[in-house]
Amino acid sequence: MDMKLEVIVVPVSDVDRAKNFYAEQLGFRLDADFPVHDGYRVVQVTPPGSACSIIFGQGVTEAPAGTLQGLHLVVTDIVQAQKELTDRGVEVSGPFRDETGVFHHAGDVRRVPGLHPERASYGTFLSFSDPDGNGWIVQEITERAPGR
After folding, report:
1. Higher-scoring residue by pLDDT: 110, 30
2. What is the pLDDT of residue 145?
């Protein structure tokens, strides 16, 4: 049986500010905005080309705003992604690679500035945060590992 990751809940403090950031500034598709009743509102947005959406709102999670870290967006050209994010007014850190070359450490520990020297697939990252501090990673993947 297939199990597909389709939705991730992102904790935010201000739903309208988050909606503006994700839908307007980042350009995620606005799928739904359901103000069901006072204290319960569900907003769903989807990154361009993604099968997985994010949901935020009021009454959808008990996690404190800004505590979600390490969400990954995958792109085929990290230089272009950096330009597009910067052009949209998003403060981006990177590009960088991890000194181990395996993945990346949490936070900004052991980051090596610049693109991976061979532009190896899976090897170069950017990072940014939403207005609440939820942390996102952008990873360049140009060729998928076998079985992926």
Report:
1. 30
2. 76
